[in-house]
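pinging the channel bc i need a second pair of eyes. not urgent but kinda urgent?? the chain im working w is below, pasted from the shared doc
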Amino acid sequence: MQSIKALVFDVFGTAVDWRSSVVAELQELGEKHGKLKNNANDWGKFAQEWRNEYMKKTLRIAAGASGPLNIDAIHRQILDEMLASPEWSHIGHLWDEDARQHINLAWHRLNGWSDTVDGLHALKKHALLATLSNGNVRLLIDLARYAGLPWDMIFSTELFDTYKPNPKAYLEAMRHLALPPENCAMVAAHIYDLRAAGSLGMTTIYVRRPDEDARALDMEVKSKEDGGEVDCVVDSFVELAEILAQAQN
């Protein structure tokens, strides 16, 4: 960790708690417009399905399929498809254009995890902080302002005409930072993201977040020191800042 000069962060799920934030907005909208039983379990299912479809679409596009390269557009496409489906059509006809536009922008209004802001400020003392997110540029700017995220630089895959985990996203971010892979670390709560970054020589830091990484729920993500596949595993950004401080002193 002593050689790390830049930390490159995933955002959704890693820096911000998308699930509870989106569920809260869905509940609020449901009180105004919906017939769905208005509780967190119902809206949690809706939010998770929305997120799952986002993952499927972006992974296909990252692998070379055609599709929108703007997450707002993808989120809206998925939202309309869900609200037209048999499972959700009973509320779909109640949500007009204004309601749909409002809830689609809920992804611009996500709260950070409890350790996020303090941890990022502590980390800024030791390295450059940049996002590398599939979120579009305006979304990431809005999130930074809303949640008080002190990034030095915002990289969106929208700028690179692809999505993670396409290697182009990581390579372009490092090119713009003017740093080789050995001086860059990818910080994420998703093992697929770290596997892609690690394959290009970046240091990989896994952050445990509640119920976030569906691909890791049936396995324990371990550091290489403990026989795993990532360089470091932490439970918070604050813990990561402490580790980086120790390594650089």
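so The first strand starts at residue 6 and ends at 9. and Residues 40-62 form the longest helix (23 residues). — does that match what u expected or am i reading it wrong
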